[in-house]
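Before a colleague's protein record goes any further, I have to sign it off. I want your independent view on whether this chain really folds as the tokens say. The record follows directly below this note.
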Amino acid sequence: MQNEKLVENIKLLADKKGCKPGQLALAWVQQQGDDVFPIPGTKSIKYLEENIAAFNVKLSKQEMTELEEAVPHSAVSLFITSLNVKAPPPPPALTQGILSG
């Protein structure tokens, strides 16, 4: 139930902004800093076009605050922790290239 509420909050803010919820999420990631770049995956041209259009969505400080209040970090962290999912280690060739370069 809590996740449904978080999704509903995102949908409401996206509607208010005039974009899709996924575009709002990508815009939020993009605005986390100059060293952050979202790389979304997709299976269709339609969604690729939506993802590209997300770069035109600019969030004001007020909108960033509204989004962060609508989807609090603590609620997301609690959900992720409850999944008890651990990411697999990266392939050795990848880490060797990064560490040696």
Remarks:
- DSSP finds six helices and no strands in the chain.
- Residues 44 and 85 are 28 Å apart (CA to CA).
- The chain has one domain: 2-100.
- The mean pLDDT is 80.
